[in-house]
Write a structure and sequence with these properties.
The chain is mostly helical and 166 residues long. It has six helices and no strands. α2 runs parallel beside α4.
């Protein structure tokens, strides 16, 4: 067996698995820049993930699942914002409470969906000639749309952080 036959799928899977973490890190980067400590990111992600999965399974459309996950995650993030900005609650306590809340809520809601697959998951969209580059192409340029959106967001947020006024 050729090492590339093993290594390329492994690294491509790592890119897919790391994309949600990248989204969370980008959101937390902006939050930290605004002066808020958000230790509730994990809980926000869990509520968003289970809500998105429930919507995707129910509707059969992964884009509706994505929308549901953004709305649910945004709603939980608004709770943290209300507690820390409006009520001036301790940011660490609020964030940890949201992590515990999100973990429990996602576990409770997700029990009914264990073992149920999404009928139409996001499919890979090869990026033309970039996908044909040896070794690099299959890893970075034969992914789904959410991975490509994360690439764009990294550049946009980098530009926002370092080339605009604070």
């Amino acid at each position: 067996m050729n090492i590339q036959e093993f290594l390329i799928p492994l690294l491509a899977a790592a890119v897919i698995a790391g994309t949600p973490i990248l989204y969370a890190a980008l959101g937390e980067l902006i939050t930290e820049r605004a002066g808020i400590i958000n230790l509730g990111v994990e809980g926000i992600m869990l509520v968003g993930a289970v809500s998105g999965f429930m919507a995707a399974v129910t509707t059969g459309n992964p884009w509706i699942g994505l929308l549901a996950s953004m709305l649910a995650g945004g709603a939980v993030a608004l709770i943290h914002a209300f507690l820390t900005i409006t009520l001036r609650a301790n940011q660490v306590v609020s964030g940890l409470a949201l992590t515990i809340f999100g973990t429990g809520l996602s576990g409770y809601l997700g029990k009914a969906y264990i073992g149920i697959p999404v009928e139409k998951p996001f499919s890979p969209l090869p990026l033309g000639p970039l996908a044909d580059i040896p070794f690099i192409g299959p890893i970075f340029f034969q992914q789904d749309a959410l991975v490509y959106i994360s690439y764009v967001l990294v550049v946009v947020i980098w530009y926002y952080m370092y080339h605009t006024r604070p």
